[in-house]
Amino acid sequence: MDWTDLDAFQALPRLTGLALSPDGSRLVTAVAELDPKRQKWVTALWEIDPSGQSEAVRLTRSAKGEGGPVFTDGGDVLFTSTRPDLEDEADAKPALWLLPPRGEARPVGTRPGGVGGARTRGAHVVVSSDTMPSAVTAEDDERIRKERKDRKVSAILHSGYPIRFWDHDLGPDQPRLLLGEIGDDITWQDLTPEPGRALDNATYDVSEDGGTVVTSWSVAEPRGSIRSTVRVLDVASGASRVLADGVDHEHGSVVLSPDGTRVAVVRHDRSTAERPPNSYLVVMAVAAGSEQVISHWDRWPTSIRWAPEGDALLVTADDQGAAPVFRVSLDGGKVTRLSTDNGAYTDVQVSADGAYVYALRSAVDSPPQPVRLSAHIPAAPQLLRSPAAGLEMPGKLVEVTAKADDGRRLRAALVLPEGKGRHPLVLWVHGGPLASWNSWSWRWNPWLLAAQGYAVLLPDPALSTGYGLGHIRASWGDWGGATYTDVLRVTDAALTRADVDRSRTAMMGGSFGGYLANWIAGHTDRFRAIVTHASLWGLERFGGTTDGAYYWQREMTPQMIRQNDPSQFADLVRTPMLVIHGDKDYRVPIGEALALWWDLCSRAEDPAAMPHRFLYFPDENHWVLTPGHAVLWYATVLSFLHQHVREGEESLPSPLG
Fold it and tell me: Is the Cβ–Cβ distance between 511 and 443 less than 8 Å?
């Protein structure tokens, strides 16, 4: 592939999700590709040979696409899709479809608000469906929706918090859990008739006999806060009871054991201004009573699967610049790292005989690919035959290490372009901030910069995950402290290399990385250019306008805001800045970019020599995902870097005029 061709990169197929049949003979993944107009992504289902012998086979083809595959006990594939085509696409809601091993797919379950998040066990399936609050039946739901449409009503009346999430409004409908018996025409039983906002982003599971559903459940607290609990729903009686709760805890990733008697969850200790959060595994008896807490492991679980024998959990977690698969024994809590490479693993599936783990593996230098691992013995992964070909990177990946001011070991990935000589360096800080540069990103891809001759430094400074709680504590409540000095220490280490040009450097970041870009702009002029995307500028304003204010305000005390607010240093900004923001970003609202842009413009003595630029997307979200806009994003960033780092002429992408 020509890595300088941004359109060609954007058109590459992308794997998401993985499902394994109960007998272990079939794997299914979803592959997203551009539609014929190259304006949106359309996803199809593909079957992968678990043995790695046969080529992948495409299962579905429709203009609307398919997603969310799960297997039934009988080996059929359930998936969601809005097909067939409707005249009014705005009315299209996903239905549940069934695809047998041989034959055509057919719809088996619908609701006026659509269905999604299918979970199956035995003959039963649980889905989430958005339903109008006053609706009792599906007919009620459809009538209310039609009335809103006919009257052109888009208003939402809220009675609590939150009201938005990332890039979409919450309401007027609310998620409910529906249970059905798998067949040609599923009749849904509403398990949660009046949930309020309790099931937003819920995780849930169903027992083999369909008699019990366990789910996470959000509870409203005083002063606008919420916490996540675990509830057990008794299908026969319609009753529910609290299984796990605590004012200092959150719960998620709810998974039932194979025999349905226990539930594994990830418990999060709630953060305070002085103490960062902590995450660990908890296994509880569904009947209530016993509880096993695995808190000695200094890593944060990101997903859970039960071993078929019920004696262990297969878990993923960030770890030292990777995200391996671990086996956690429930007899003593022994933790064994199964994947021995530097990969980042997602969508873990376990074979019924307990011998193998299947997953999607990616890395900074490798897009997601299906692999097989031993479920017991540490080993390198076996690459399975993929629906998407592997890519050859336009350069190489090396590691850079340094020592923090307090003695912590710092590490970063360094992407080096092809060719000899001293390459200009771009420091790229990840978002989060509780995250790590350890996996492939289609949206934040350093290789597109490397193809243009830039070395790209991807550090994991303080607050990054996978290095223990001490690494997070180092900058908790002090965002402009250790995170700032850490990235400078790692940058200094990279600049000692003979293949990096210390005189030509730039810095960029998005979300929290954008915060750090703004902080750096007001504290040093060592970089020739700064790109700040979806960034925090005024912490006091951000704290009340973001979609989850209650979470951030646990850490953002008035003192923390005073000491770590980038906007207080606007007078000291000397570096040319490219500001990028989408108006549909609710995590970091557009007001942050507007205030930053005004602070930059109001200090420009000569408008004709204005060095800063503002790339504004009226209809994009936190990430800027529309294919054409993503291409434009990279083109504008590369133009800005070329102008200021390489002292070239400004050359704007043609769609910008």
Answer: no
Angle at 209 between CA 207 and CA 211, to 5 degrees: 70
Is residue 652 very low, low, confident or very high in pLDDT (cuts 50, 70, 90)? confident
- How far is 22 from 14, CA to CA, in rounded Å? 25
The span from the CA of 441 to the CA of 455, in Å, is: 17
Q: How is residue 222 annotated by DSSP?
A: G
What is the pLDDT at residue 550?
96
In the 8-state DSSP scheme, what is residue 645?
H
> What value does the mean pLDDT take over residues 284-309?
93
Q: Is the pLDDT of residue 459 over 80?
A: yes
Q: Give percent helix, percent strand, percent coil of the chain, each to the nearest 5.
A: 20, 35, 45
391, 2 in Cβ contact below 8 A?
A: no
CA dihedral (148, 154, 157, 161) positive or negative: positive
The helix/strand/coil state of 544 is: helix
Q: What's residue 501's pLDDT?
A: 98
- Residue 119, H or E segment: strand 116-121
Cβ neighbours around 246 below 10 Å, total: 12
Strand ranges across the sheet with 382-383: 344-350, 356-363, 366-374, 382-383
Tell me how many helices (H) and strands (E) the chain has: 11, 38
- What CATH number does the domain located at 395-656 have? 3.40.50.1820
SS3 sequence of 245-266: CCCCEEEEEEEECCCCCEEEEE
Cis bond upstream, residue 433 (ω within 30): yes
Helix 512-521, helix 482-494: angle, nearest 10? 80
pLDDT in tens, 300-345: 999 999 999 999 999 999 999 999 999 999 998 899 999 999 999 9
Identify the helix (H) or strand (E) that includes residue 52.
none
Question: Is the bond into 558 cis (omega within 30 degrees of 0)?
Answer: no
Strands of 41-48's sheet in order across: 14-20, 27-34, 41-48, 57-58
Q: In whole angstroms, what is the distance from residue 584 CA to residue 167 CA?
A: 6
364: DSSP letter:
T
Beta strands 168-169 and 249-256, pairing class: unpaired
Pairing of the two strands 95-99 and 106-109: antiparallel
User: Reduced to 3 states, what is the DSSP secondary structure of residue 3?
Assistant: coil
Calpha distance 168→398 (Å, rounded): 39
Nearest to 129 by CA among 87, 177, 172, 79: 177
pLDDT tops 90 at residue 350: yes
